[in-house]
What does this fold into?
Amino acid sequence: MQGFNISIMGAVGAIRDSYVVMAVYDSGLSMIYCGAHTLPDAVEMRGISLPADQIIAMRVLSIHATMGEAKQAVSGVLRDAGVPPVNRAMLMRREVIQCVETGETWNSAADCVRDHECNQSALSNHLAGRPGFKTVKGRKYIRISVDNRNESL
It folds into this structure.
């Protein structure tokens, strides 16, 4: 493993509470991920799901005081990379649907509805925790925030 060097100077609390824009590149140096994280989460790659043996390069592109500023910077990086606006929005906040009983996951509620042949409205109400929708066709579902887990550009 080759190291990388990032120098940050400031008060410990300010550094800990800062937000970074980080990019992850595959072995061919194609960007496979770009997202905003707290600095500790970025260093630990928390919320980014990649195979343990995948060769990557990680780069901190910028540091920001607020998550809002960092997300705007991510949008700019993705725009500059040629990612269409709709895909940029999907990459910045990402959730998957998971069946509690089976552990199966879907990238969207529509995919879940299609696979389990259930009512989209019922699933939406269930996920929102509305009364009367404790299960959907006898199953429980949850949203899992993957916060840009391993989105390919």
Summary: The first strand starts at residue 19 and ends at 25. The longest helix spans residues 67-80.
